[in-house]
């Protein structure tokens, strides 16, 4: 990696109306380790969760529509959607639904050979959970 890169980290800041529910879901259920948390005046609270390697995926409207069609079968994604790569897409999807996420589309093998599911989660986020299947299609 180029140590002279101008950007060192991607951090997505999400306002969560029910902070405790969102924190429990993403930290305790999805398993994003807490790097830091802070409290301020007037009840202000924030937690910084480690989501592994970050990328910014830019898609034109046609690509966004195609992904919705493959993963869900209809247009449903908001302008911003989070995607988390996991080792076992079916197990993680089931665990998230059990914890209260709404299943929008079950794990589906995509044309790019990953297993993707779509969920509505706390903090009004739409999430794709994906597992890279590699050459074997496991």
Automatic annotation (TrEMBL):
The keyword Cytoplasm does not apply. Gene3D superfamilies: 2,3-Dihydroxybiphenyl 1,2-Dioxygenase, domain 1 (3.10.180.10). The keyword Lyase applies. One of its GO terms (molecular function) is lyase activity. Keywords: Dioxygenase, Lyase, Oxidoreductase. Residues 8-132 form the VOC domain. This is Catechol 2,3-dioxygenase-like lactoylglutathione lyase family enzyme.
């Amino acid at each position: 990696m180029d140590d002279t890169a101008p950007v060192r980290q991607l951090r997505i800041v999400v306002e969560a109306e029910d902070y405790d529910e969102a924190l429990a879901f993403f930290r305790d259920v999805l398993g994003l380790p807490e790097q830091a948390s802070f409290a301020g005046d007037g009840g202000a609270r924030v937690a910084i969760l480690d989501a592994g390697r970050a990328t910014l995926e830019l898609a034109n409207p046609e690509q966004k529509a195609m992904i919705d069609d493959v993963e869900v079968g209809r247009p449903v994604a908001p302008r911003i959607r989070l995607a988390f790569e996991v080792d076992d897409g079916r197990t993680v999807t089931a665990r998230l639904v059990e914890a209260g996420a709404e299943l929008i589309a079950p794990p589906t093998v995509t044309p790019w050979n990953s297993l993707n599911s779509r969920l509505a989660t706390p903090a009004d986020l739409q999430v794709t959970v994906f597992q890279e299947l590699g050459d074997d299609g496991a």
